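Holo prediction — zinc ion.
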Amino acid sequence: MLAALGKGLRDEFPNPERAGCPGREIIAAIAAHRMPLTEAEPYLDHLGSCSPCYRDFVGLQAKYHQRRTRMILAVAAGVLIVVGLGTWTMLRQQNQQIAAVVDLRDRSMARGTELPPTDRPLEIPRNVSQLEVYLPLGSAEGAYAVRVTAKQGQTISSGNGNAQVEQGATVLKVDLKPALSASGMYLLEIRRSQSEWGSFPMRVH
Ligand SMILES: [Zn+2]
């Protein structure tokens, strides 16, 4: 019924002289809800009895809604881009885990903290959080525990992993938590299940 009414309003009140018309600015303000209803009220009667103004009003309102929809879409797209970038940055940071390879194939599991003085320290860069350890030759597959201790014996970082034989070498991949952020001399300690820790001096650059 409103549609029928609207159709009628479009044509039923021709006003070629535009007598008493409030002007396009005011009609635009009403159409865009920029004018409070109390202020707009005096003009509403005119809109309902002047076809040219009514047509302007309908056109401007459609334009306003179109623009608003476009703006909302633009804001939504902006939010999506920001969220996307944030997620991407986060994923990238997570993927930037630094891995290091430690080769113990020509070494043997030294018992306890008595270190063979001839062993050169292992060298790894700072911020390593993943170790790929080539265990001493003949090491068994299975669950291993790894920890990095300071000279005073306190554990700086640790992790667990499963060693598997790959092309003749027993390889243990382990995530260290937290990453080794401070440079210095440490002990890399490894043990299989409940056996004794094997210790290897390790320098973090
Ligand atoms: Zn008018």
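READOUT: The chain has a mean pLDDT of 86.
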